[in-house]
Amino acid sequence: MAMPQQYGAFVQTTNVWDVSQLQSIDVTSPEFKELLLRLYQNINSIALVLNIKDTGMYQLSEFVNGQLFFPNPANNSSTAQAANDRQVLRKVINIGALSNAGSTTVSHGITVTANTTFTRIYACASNTTNKLYIPIPNSGAFDASMEVTATNVVITTTVDLSGYNICYAVLEYLQS
Prior knowledge:
The protein has one helix and eight strands, in the order H-E-E-E-E-E-E-E-E. The protein has one helix at 30-51; strands spanning 63-69, 86-94, 103-107, 117-127, 132-136, 144-148, 152-157, 166-174. It is elongated, with a radius of gyration of 24 Å.
């Protein structure tokens, strides 16, 4: 099993016991106890790897996505809080249609405190009529910027992007 400091997280897929012996094994034997121990170790490895995988769910509500950030650097030997890795939260905001050279503002509903740190902020807009799609932020012909305030997601366009009728913003953040 990979440790959190290594790249990736993978579960061993090779057999660690002889399956042909499972039906004939004596449940009071040392071999059966060994089998149970190996089975427990495999389940534990699966749980450890599963718990550090980035979850590919994009919800409209706050969701712990499985990413871990280093411990809060503000914590030190005089703080009461332990130096643990911090869970990353993800929330998708349905922006709707973009504006004609202006700002589109939508409340994100996140409780922003002094301990909130955003780690990723991005969006994608879709023009379903013409089958066109653009990332945000974007510079060039489709100049669009994005910012997050304490209460809102704001997407500002300098050209008419009102044909982009669907836009989803993805916010990932820490609360410690």
